[in-house]
């Protein structure tokens, strides 16, 4: 049976933001004299942890972490406004996929960040809706985000494909009972994707996956 619906993750799949999120955390911690270890950060990401795990392990108190988190958020938004975060070919690919499937975005991004990213971009015109972090209770790896997406689309699990770049997102899709294609991303390439239905280098490969079942 062919796929009729695609639920896209956002960061690292449709826009290249993972690096800048890391840089914002690194900069916020450097402000208090702490050096973020990138390799450890990438390992922590697998477990759903961010920059603050290292800070806590080093004994930095919660009040300081809370303050630096706000500063990190401001740095991140600055990067979103000023840095090149496009992934080549995404808009063209979405335009092509839109001929065959209905699409939506299911992201852990906060609404404010998502809106900054899409102020001047052409991605959301192809989407029926977007679910941001404020739109559901439990985040990935819990299945709720993708189950919410299915419900909004009025789609069955069998008719739907999830596109992700992280093991947390993959776990969420698998727990929701939906096939998942993992797209290559340098920031997540060391994660465990053994449960993925497909591994792809670029989004245009999704067309073949969709058409092979029709």
TrEMBL record:
Keywords per UniProt: Hydrolase
Any Pfam family: HAD_2
Organism the protein comes from: Ktedonosporobacter rubrisoli
NCBIfam families documented for this protein: HAD-SF-IA-v3
Gene Ontology biological process: DNA repair
Record's keyword annotation contains Hydrolase: yes
Single annotated GO MF: phosphoglycolate phosphatase activity
The keyword Transferase belongs to this UniProt entry's keyword annotation: no
SUPFAM superfamilies assigned: HAD-like
Name of the protein in question: HAD family hydrolase
